[in-house]
Each structure stands twice: as C-alpha cells, then as structure tokens.
Amino acid sequence: MFTALLSLVFCLTAVFPVAAVQPTAKDLVLVAIKNFDLGMDKGFYQKSQGEGTLEVTRFDGSLKKIIGDYSGATIKYLVHLDDAQKAMKFSYDTDIKGMAHEGDIYLQDDKVMLTKDLFLLLQDFGVDAFENSSFSLTEAPEYMYLADPQLEAVWDQMSSYQNGKLPVEYTELLAFLVEVIPDECFSLSTSKVTMRLNQDDLVNTVVNLLTKMTNESERVAEILVSANAYSFEQMGMDPAEMKREIAAGLASMTIPSREEIQAVTSLIEVNDFTYEYSLLPGGPKTFNVDLGFKTPDGLLEGALSIAVDVAGKSDNLEGSYRMAGQFNDSNGPQVDVDYKSEFSYSDTVAHADSTVNVMVKDNTSGELLLDLGLAGGSISEVNTSLALDVPELTADNSLNITALIPTTGTSVTNEQVVEPPSLDLVVNGVAIEAKSGFGKQGEIAVPARAVLEQLGYRVEWVQPNEIRVLSDEQNISLFIDRKNYTVNGAEKNLYTSSYLEAGRAMVPLSFLTAELNAGIDIAAPNLVITTK
Prior knowledge:
By secondary structure, the chain is of the alpha+beta class. 24% of the residues lie in helices and 40% in strands.
C-alpha cells in the first residue's frame, strides 16, 4: 500500500494542474492525472543522446579486505535513442581496479544485442555467464543476442511519453489510488492543492482500498491485466480469462476488520506524508514523507524519508530528489542508504547530478562491513538529426546466446536472424541418432521419446496431441502447439510450446531443466544432457 502511494505522489510531481469549474482539491488531482503532462520536450523520447559518468568515491569496510579496493572505479557511458528505428544504443568505457573495458549494448524491437566485451568484463570479476557450457568467448562472433516479445512494450510506452503522457493503464492505476484516499486529506487554497495523510488516514485509506477492490473488481482486473498484458501472453494465458479469474477472486475476497487493519498499520508510524502543488503554471511542487516501521517484537526497525521539489516549465524546469532509508536488526546488520539528485531541463538539454551513500554495520560486533560512496553526472539533449547505426545480424557475425544461457521467456522473431545448426545429442553418455531442433520462438528443442527415455522416463503418445511423460514420482502431460501442460494434475505453462517435426514430438530444453532437473552443456557440435 505504501509503495503504491509513494509511486502515486512521486509521479504527480510532474503533473501540471488543470482548471475545473468549482472543483474540490481531490477533483483537481484526478483531473490532473487524466491530463498528465511530463513537462519536458517530447524529443527526449524520439531522437536524443546523452553521456554520463559514475564513480566510486569511497569504498571501505571489511568487504574491502575480501574483494579488494574499488575506490576510484569509473564507468563512462553514451546513450543514443532513435525511436523511428525502435532502437537504443548504450556504449560504456570502464576503468575498475586497473582493468579497462569498453563495449556496446543495443536494444532494437524485441532484441538485445551485446558485444562480447561485456562477458569478458564479468569474467574479470569472477562471474562467468557460460560456466555451465564448453563455449569459449575467444571463439565467439562479434555480437551475441537475446530476444523477448515483452521488450516491444518499451516502444509502446515510448509513444505515450512522446505525447507527454503516461500509458493509459498507469493513469488508470493512479486515479484508482487517489480515489481511495479520504476526501478530508485534500485541501484547496487560492494558490495550491495539498494532500496530507496522518496515522488515522492511513487506516481509512487501507479500508477504502480493500473495499473498493472488492466492489470494483472488474475495473481492478482490467487495470492489472492491461499493465501486464505482455507477461500474460508470453505465459500462454488468455487475458480475457485472466480478467475473469482476477475479478472473481477480488469479488469474493474477505476484507479484514478495521481493528485488524489498525493492528497491522500500527507497525508503521506516519510522521509526515504531504504533497503540495501550485495552481500557478510552473509553480512549485513538493512531496515529503517520513515513515517509521517496526516488527511486533521490536527487534527490527527502520525508517524511510523522501523529499521532492520541482518547479518551472519545460523550458526551465528544475528539481531535486532525496531518498533515505534505514534498516536496523538488533541481532544483525544496520543499513543506512542515502540518495540525492538535482536535475534541470532547459528546452532540449537536461542535466543531472547524483550521489549515493551506503553504510552497513554489524550490530553484534560493531564491525564496519561497508562504507560506499557513488557520484554520477549526466547531460542529455534532443538531436533531431540522429541516425543510429544498428548492426545487422547475420549467421557469421552473431550468435543466439539463448542456446547457451537458457532464459525463461526468450524468443527469436526477427526474420534476418539465421537459425543455428542442429546439434548432435549425447544423453547420459549415450549418443542419440536424432538431432536437436529449433522451435518457433527461438529455443532449442529435442526429440521427446529418444531423449526422455534415455533419461529414465516412460513416454507415451496419446491421440490427438498429447505427450505423456511418466515416472514413479511424476505424471506429466504436454500438448503439441500449446504452452500449458500438467504435472501430477497441476497446470503450468511453457514459454515455448512443444511441436511436431518430421513426425517427431519435440520438447524445449527449458522443460527438461525446469521439470526433469536435467543438466545441459553445449560443446559444439554436441548437446550433452545428463541426469543430475
């Protein structure tokens, strides 16, 4: 609930008030949400470029003795956005503990393309993305890529931002949250609108929220499904069916009593929760929050504070953010985090400077575990003549690393990408005559009967489209061209469906790793599958 409210008010710092006829303060806020204006040049979301630096200004504590001194480490970066191509480029240049790296990351359509230096950088710090594979980075082509249809949502949202608006599902969510806040929390003067919550208001807000979710279950279901449409589609779920299920669940939800809600919210102390914005164009907008929390036994406690100040119009917009948090476990660590940022927009140029400070102590020993300081600065500008040069992937210069790092939900849809060759199969040390395949969504698949029987399972084909996989502990049913399957009667979903190829049923590798706990190792030209 608090996360939702914080998100609501944080977003509203960019809202410019809209006049209404004899409005209440709450009416003004709801109208402002409907007419949400980001308050900056739309070119930042069309064609723009930026550069920045992040530096470790302080690194101390016992962690320094374990992993070394990262003081002075820097990352310089360049960002280019060309929405006309649905493309973004992120170039980096790092100097960390005397080790230098530079590389590029591209996002285009539904695909993320990486130069292999990123993996070399990770290896320098003990992280090997290919540790479970015989694949060698020295033999890798220039580019490696992953694809995921959910990335298309980035470009759908970008079109909303270009119009100075939030996506519709977000404005609907914000409006819903404002509606549950009690009317008496809003006040209106000749120059500003104020929203202020105290401890009692928190209880009333939670009561209103739960009641409204039950009474308007279909509206809530519509908001939730719209905001997560891509995720549901990739999980093989019908959005309409999801709406019905969510609405039915909310409508039958049992609402806790006011006393129960009050008992829970008493663990949160509302010292300040105030949002104000000027009715004058370009006038100041402020948001201040000061919350404390504790567990019933008092062993854990903490605090969260946020301060936001924004003023000006798109040709001269300035502001600052500060967020500070503390978590204190009397029998464990004490964590203090402080983030500060100042920013400005002047027509088509934006500046930002930020600092982060983190301190971690062990309460039992008094030992300083970490004292970290970060400082960053950036400048961005609209560049209408920008033409981003995105690499064209071919079989010679690129590799689909989905085959090397199985990633839930990844797929390949770009027609210019050439499918990788089939791999010879070795299952529990035995070479299989059949070879691997390549599913419609970019994941390696293997012949069900040949591979699963070698892994110790019984495999049956049940007309017209069922693959039954049996063992003493499991009874699994998969279905051709369907992402849903069952395990001992419980329904689950694949991200890549099984399919038929030359009369053989093919199942994706992710099914083997998720349900059969199989080990996968690619040592071209072999795909090695073992029982763990």
